[in-house]
Design goal:
The chain has 110 residues and is of the alpha+beta class. It has a single domain (2-96), classed as Beta Polymerase, domain 2. It has four helices and five strands; from the N terminus they run αββαβββαα. β4 and β5 (80-85) form a beta hairpin.
Length: 110
């Protein structure tokens, strides 16, 4: 399913696509996919196309939230949760910063 989602986002010209593996870190999903659209209309179109492609591939009707506004649309694909943002909304909420594990900074030895 993850490869279908990534292919759909790529085909619809989503920008800055990031996949964050959550397996073993969270029970909500195995992965988060975060992408940007150029405008509210583009964000909504990406999400609508993704939901349709998932349904056509046999994954059933997937819940989609936020289509009317197009600032932040969430597609719940079950094991994968897809967030599609306008760039400024994505920067404000910084989901990547919340989920990406960074290496701890090491203290310098004196």
């Amino acid at each position: 399913m993850l490869s279908r989602i990534q292919a759909s986002l790529d085909a619809d010209k989503a920008e800055d696509i990031v996949t964050i593996e959550l397996e073993g870190r969270s029970s909500i999903a195995d992965a988060l996919v975060i992408a940007s659209g150029r405008s509210a209309r583009h964000v909504s179109a990406i999400a609508e196309n993704l939901a349709r492609k998932l349904k056509d591939a046999g994954y059933g009707t997937r819940p989609v939230d936020g289509l009317a506004q197009g600032d932040w649309v969430l597609v719940d694909a079950g094991d994968v949760i897809v967030h599609i943002f306008r760039p400024e909304v994505r920067a404000y909420y910084d989901l990547e910063g919340m989920w990406i594990v960074r290496e701890p900074e090491r203290a310098s030895a004196h």
